[in-house]
Design brief:
The protein is an alpha/beta fold and 475 residues long. The protein has two domains: 2-136, Cobalamin-binding domain (Rossmann fold), CATH 3.40.50.280; 160-449, TIM Barrel (Alpha-Beta Barrel). Helices cover 36% and strands 16% of the residues. It has helices at residues 29-35, 72-84, 94-98, 100-104, 119-127, 180-184, 195-204, 221-231, 244-248, 252-259, 273-278, 289-298, 318-328, 346-353, 379-393, 396-403, 408-422, 425-433, 441-449, and strands at residues 2-7, 43-48, 62-66, 88-92, 109-112, 134-136, 164-165, 168-170, 190-192, 209-212, 237-242, 261-269, 302-309, 333-338, 460-461, 464-465. Helix 7 runs parallel beside helix 8 (221-231) and helix 13 (318-328) runs parallel beside helix 15. The protein is globular, with a radius of gyration of 22 Å. The two termini are 24 Å apart.
Amino acid sequence: MKVKMILPALTEARSPLFRPIKYSLFPPLGLATLAAYLPADAEITLQDEHVEHVDLSDEPDLVIIQVYITSASRAYRYADHYRKKGAHVCLGGLHVTSLPDEAAAHADTVFLGPGEDTFPEFLRDFKAGRPKPCYAAPLGRTLDHLPPMRRDLIKRDLYLVPNSIIVSRGCPHHCDFCYKDAFFGKGTGFYVRKVDDALAEIDSLPGRHVYFLDDHLLGEPRFAAMLFDGMKGMGRVFQGAATVNSLIKPGLLEKAAEAGLRSIFVGFENLDANNLRDHGKVQNLGRDYNAAVRRVHEHGVMVNGSFVFGMDEDGPDVFERTADWAVSQGIETSTFHVMTPYPGTALFQRMEAEGRMLHRDWDLYDTRHTVFRPARMTPEQLENGYWNAYGRFYEWGNIFKGAMTKEAAGALRHIAYAGGWKKFEWVWHALIRMKQVALGLPLLERALDLTRPPRPAAREFNGEPAARAVPMDGR
C-alpha cells in the first residue's frame, strides 16, 4: 500500500521567493505519529510544504492531509486532486474538527479530534474495505499506548528544531479565543504521556537541544516535576511554553531550569485585566507580570512573550504601551497577534452573534489580518498597530535597551537572540533556499547556553548510563 501524508503550507509560507524561518522550525509530528500506526510494509511518503515542494505526480492508495485554517483552501485542492486519481483521501486537524461539513466535501474520510484516537480504527476498516466517512475521537483519552513516532520519515536537515517533542495533549485552561476546547473538547481537559515513555523519547534524540511543543508544559505539576527530575543530568537544553501562574508558583520553574530549560513561551496576552476576564484568561488575573518575568530571568531562562491585540478594551494606544512594557522588562522576544476568532471557538460564536465578523476568507485568519470589527478602533488601525508593535519592539535601540536590564552574559544572549530572530531574516532565508536550515542549530544552542552552568555529567537512565549526545547527522 502506498501512503502519502501532506502538511500543506500556511498562507505566508507559500512564496517561492521568501519563506519566514518560523515555518522551518518544527517538523510535522502529528503526521509522523499517525504513520506509526501504518502497516510495516506500507510505502510512506511524508511531505511538509513549508520546507519542500509537494510532488503531485505520484499515485498513492491512501492520502492523509493535516489541515490548519490558513492552509484549508490548499489542502482541499490537494484532496480534490488525489480523489480524481482514485486515492482514498483523509482530512484531519484543527480546521476539520471545527468545520467537518466543509472538509467532508473534499474527503472520503474526516477525522475529528486527535488522530491517534481514531486512526487505528480507520485503518482496520480501510483494510476490511469499509472505511467510514467520519471518525470522532472519544472522551476518556489516554497516551499510554502511543507508539514511537516515525521520526525516520522526517527530513531533519530541513528544520532548525528537528528535536521537537510533545508529551501532553490539550491545556487545563479555557480561553475563549483558543482552538483547544473545539479540538479536544471541554470534557477531556488535559492529559499526559507516561513519564518513562517521554524520557525514553528524549534520550533517543541526537544532539542537545529539545523543543517541547506542548500548549502548557507545566500544566500537570506532578507529571512536569517527574519529567524534569528525569531530565536532570541528561545535558539537554530545552524550550517550552507555560502560563504566568505556573511560573510564579515555587518548585517547577526551579526543577525545569536545573534540567536545562533556557527559554519559555509565556501567554501574557494582554495588560488589561478586563480584557483577560472577558476572554476567560482567568489564570492571568491578579498576577504580577513584572514579578513573573523577573523570577524567570533570575533562573537564567529567557522569555518569549505572547500578546493579543484587538480585545474590546484595547484602544489605539495598546500597541506602543505593550511593546514598551515588554522592552522595559527585558523580555528577549515577543510574539504579537491580531485577535482572530477561529471557527469552533467561543469567541467566534460571540462575534458572529454580534454581527462583527467581516468575512470567511480563511487565508486571512492568520493573526496578521483583521477579520472582525474591533470595539475601540478601526480594522485598519488594528492591523497597522500590530505591525508597528513588531517594529517598535525589535528596533535595535529597544533590543539594546532590553539587554541593558541584565548582566553582561545575559545582555549578550538577549542581543543575539532578539537580533538573530528578527534582524537577520535574510540569513535564515538564504539557509532555507539552500536547504541548510539545520546549520543554525549550533548557533541556537550556543545562544541558549549563555549565562548557564556547564553541561552536567552523564546520569543513569532507567538503570543504564545515559548515552552521550551525538552531533545531528540528518537522519
